[in-house]
Amino acid sequence: MHATDAVTQGRESYARRAWRDAYEQLSAADGPTPLDADDLDRLAKAAYFIGHDDAAVEGFERAHRAFLDRADIGRAARSAFWLGYFLVQRGRHAEAGGWFGRAQRLLDEHALDAVECGYLLIPAARRALDSGDPHRAHEMFDEAVRIAHRFGDADLIALGTMGRGRALISGGDVRRGMAMLDEAMLAVTTGDVSPMAAGLVYCVLVISCRDIFDWRRAQEWTVALTRWCANQQDLKPYRGQCLVHRSEIMQLRGEWPDAMAEAQQACEHLADPPGDPVLGMAHYQLAELLRLRGEFSGSERAYRKAGEAGHAVQPGLALLRLAQGRIDEAEAAIRRVVAEAEDDRVKRCRVLAAFVEIVLAAGDIDAARTASDELAEFAADLDTPYLRAVAASARGAIMLADGDDHAACVALRRAWLSWQELDAPYEAAQVRLLMSRACRRLGDHDTASMELDAARRVFEQLGAGPALTKAAELSGRSRASAPGGLTAREVDVLRLVATGASNREVADRLVLSEKTVARHLSNIFAKLGVASRAAATAYAYRHQLV
């Protein structure tokens, strides 16, 4: 193809947002005669949109120099701004600061009254926000919006509005702040904003929603943005931390395969270059998904990678220990974490639900009740559906453990309705397991059976192995097929022991510790009234457990 034709086609593809075609066509035209500044800008952005990060960096640098060569100072500063923001997303903050500084110097030296002056207020306002001065940050974001309106720049309007919202939330005005973020996101989904700004606005919105536990809002905008992305060829507007939070949203919605793919992509994206602190967050999210699926060995490796990268591994690791039957270790870890979070209410809230589950398993109902009351207080203050559902679930579980089955049914029904409204199938199914237990103890076996079957179907669809094991135990199937009152896990251990497997081999097969296998064997010997592996093996064959 002739270079001129390739440029023309590249421009046309760019205009209709066929990003991969635009990138390939403009790259093909970028031969002995380099592209002009505007086409280099298009090439850099197309590379960014389809995830060709190194090509994007090179393209923005070349566009910056080309704009300088033709004395277009404003556009040169704009290229430097986008390059700086891109490098921030990659964790290369020193380089980003250099590009922001160069852009500001160019504007100052030429005393330029241009929209780029507003763009350069964005990183400065963000620094003020990060340093704990939301009032100063709000003033700078506000000035950026005024400049944007004067020049009619939709991208800068969205970025400035986004920043104002974030500053208001940091200053304690959550309602007005979230309304600002909604306004910025609306500009994205109605097509008023370019993909360059869209990814930044969405990422800030999701982080803000996560900070105040407003997962419903995050879910709604995620669905809307997914529709917006669907009409743009190979668009990848998400980077770094944003990928992790999208995975969390997908997990809550029961889209576990997509959540896993997003978390794995985040791990790969953040590993190069090394040293990005968000990498630990990505590994932690991957570990959470593997834990829920019952892939305990992989989950433990991912938690360890998260810890090596500097990210906290709790409460996830404590919940993994609970799932492995290592209750003492889980309890010790979660009590330490809750105590250390005494002065950080948001961090404390993130671990209280796990605390309730673990200390209930350890038999400390009083400690669970205190934590549940604290959760309920926090939920009332923030008034978000997610926290209300968490608090109601904890309250119902405590009532059930305390033997108040009627009250437990009422609280758990409220919790189930809340999870249903959030479209959170796993959490809703977990509540139905508890409801099944309560109804069975009340003698309402029909309802107990229906709740159990509904929960089991969800767990099967999700591939939630540990939850399926709980459902099987609750259904009585494990007891029916296992004489001697053995649990499903004890049957698994006995079957392997009967084949001649050592404790180490059993541990590897079932992803348990050798200590846990030894404890299971001790329980098996006691329940069956035997004193040796040989006698237990004979029992297993005699009762057709092998």
Task: Describe this protein with a few key phrases.
Arc Repressor Mutant, subunit A; elongated; single chain; mainly alpha; Serine Threonine Protein Phosphatase 5, Tetratricopeptide repeat; 546 residues; 78% helix
> What value does the average pLDDT take?
90
The number of distinct helices, counting runs of at least 4 residues, comes to: 31
Q: Please identify the top-level CATH class of the domain at 115-239.
A: Mainly Alpha
Q: What integer value in Å does the Rg equal?
A: 28 Å
CATH H-level name of the domain at 115-239... which superfamily?
Tetratricopeptide repeat domain
The proportion of residues in beta strands is under 5%
Poorly predicted spans:
477-481
Q: In total, how many beta strands?
A: 0
Task: Identify the CATH architecture of the domain at 115-239.
Answer: Alpha Horseshoe
**If you consult CATH, what is the topology of the domain at 115-239?**
Serine Threonine Protein Phosphatase 5, Tetratricopeptide repeat
Largest sheet: none
Structural class: mainly alpha
State the helical fraction: over 70%
| Separation, N- and C-terminal Cα atoms | 69 Å
Overall geometry comes to elongated
Quick structural summary:
Among the domains are: 115-239, Alpha Horseshoe (Serine Threonine Protein Phosphatase 5, Tetratricopeptide repeat), CATH 1.25.40; 384-475, Tetratricopeptide repeat domain (Serine Threonine Protein Phosphatase 5, Tetratricopeptide repeat, Alpha Horseshoe); 478-546, Arc Repressor Mutant, subunit A (Orthogonal Bundle), CATH 1.10.10.10. The chain contains 31 helices and no strands.
